[in-house]
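Hi L., both proteins are below.
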Amino acid sequence: MFDDVKVILADDDPLNLDMLEKMLQQFECTLIKTGNGQELLEAISAHPQVDLIIMDLNMPIMDGYQVLRRVKQDVHWHDIPVVVVTADSTEVANVLELGANDFLSKPFNLSELRHRVMNQIRNKRLADFAKDTNAVLEVEVAKRTAALQQALAKALQTEYEISLRLGRAAEFRDQETGSHLKCISQLSKRLGQLAGIPGEQCDILYFASLLHDVGKIGIPDSILLKPGKLAPEEFATMKEHTVIGGKIMSGARDYPVIEAGRVIALQHHEKWDGTGYPYGLKGDEIHIFARVVSIVDVFDALLTERVYKRAFSIEETTQIMSEESGKAFDPQMFGLFFAHLEEFHTLQQSIHTDALPITSITEMIR
């Protein structure tokens, strides 16, 4: 029927205990007889796997009411079914309210006793099985969740590496050093943090900003590497690098870093007042990532030497950019940037001082 069933009997009358023992012999269970409530609690402690308690209410030292409260309030014992034996029908409602699972009326009816005991043991075993099954399932779910998290982390790491490689490819065309990528990436993340962009989104911005100029791959060397000012038609071709970058990264909406890189590549030359390119977006129509990158990109570009210009001083850079607040730049975003100008300048200078090429994500985030 059931294996290793343990039933605790509690009654201060040895005759009642013997009678219950004889009536329960057919269950072939282990019966533990106790004479009062204190002995009953000690028996539960000594036998962790108890399937049923059958107890009288009127017992010395600790009565059935006290025992019932203790059992049902204990996190380790409250699932043990308790059948209360009573000769007073008025007590039934009280014990059921305290958590008793069933009751037996004195004098005992053999058939009723067997059915009630059988039902309680069956319910207890089913509950134990469900609990054990849930525990196993929880372990399996934890394992699967950990495996999924590892897979997602690996996928995200792959996205990061792809972003880095694409960004480096554009830099090789533009004769830039790895420090420019690292500078744009770190300064973008910091400005994003100051702007209140959530942490996970700041991480995406950190890597997606690497892709801001990836479209330069499609610009002819004669224009991309030309020293000095570009002719109007040449500048028109140069502006196409935004659209080319968007096309390179199109169709990747399931990959948050690549999708964010597409938006940044397309929009980082848009201007707050609507005079930018390629679409003439205005104000909040420009994605916040692009508004961040446009500021730090110009900041780094002005402070560093390029084939077409000398490096400007921090004073010159500050003056030029301040004049563009509310025109090229989001004025609130630029205000945050300007309020922390010393921090950004120190970070930019330190990155360019350590101007080694970036060959891996690990090196980039050092």
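That was the first. Here is the second:
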Amino acid sequence: METSAGSWLLAVLLLARYFKAGGTLQLSLQPVSAQIHSIVWKYDKNLLAEWVKDSILLTYYSKFKGRTTLNTDTGVLEIRNMTAADNGVYSLEINNQVQSQVYQIVEIEAVPQPEVKVTLLCNSTSESCKLVCEGDVNKAGPVEYFWKKDDGEWEQSGKKIEILNNEETRHVKTFSCRMKNLVSESDSEPIDNPLYQEKTPDCGLCVTLLVLCEIGLMWCFNNNSFS
């Protein structure tokens, strides 16, 4: 009976981890019930760090020497001064047992300053408009988007939002967007709301003020006439 590599691959838990150039990467492992007596970390099938309890030997290999620390009690691996050359797959053996937890390590860049753009055919008479939070995020890894009305609170949403031409939106002067990834965040400059309309004065209030002014003028006139 064949035990295919496919069965082993199904058991692998591939986890993506991201780092910024020059930063520190920390990799942990799933809880181990038995006492740890040997640890082997590998980088793309090459030895990275190795420790055996009985020999009290802790060895770091190749480019990882001098910038790597292995906690022999927990198995946690820390690598400093990460670069794009460190991208790859990192795997672990505990007590000579290959662990199912495997890391895909990828360098990411800081997000750029985004720019809010309005889709075409949008003006004050449109039923709705779409706003897009633009910026080159090809090397930024997973990116989250947030939007803000005027000086309000940031609200998480997508890269694109639709604004409706209703009473609430028409009184918002500006929209801003924010990009955020695991190592940075950046805000756009506010953009004028294409659906914005000035608030019109309350006619009832104007009439009331005019009446009060007339009463005041009449009172002054009458008092001056009898003085």
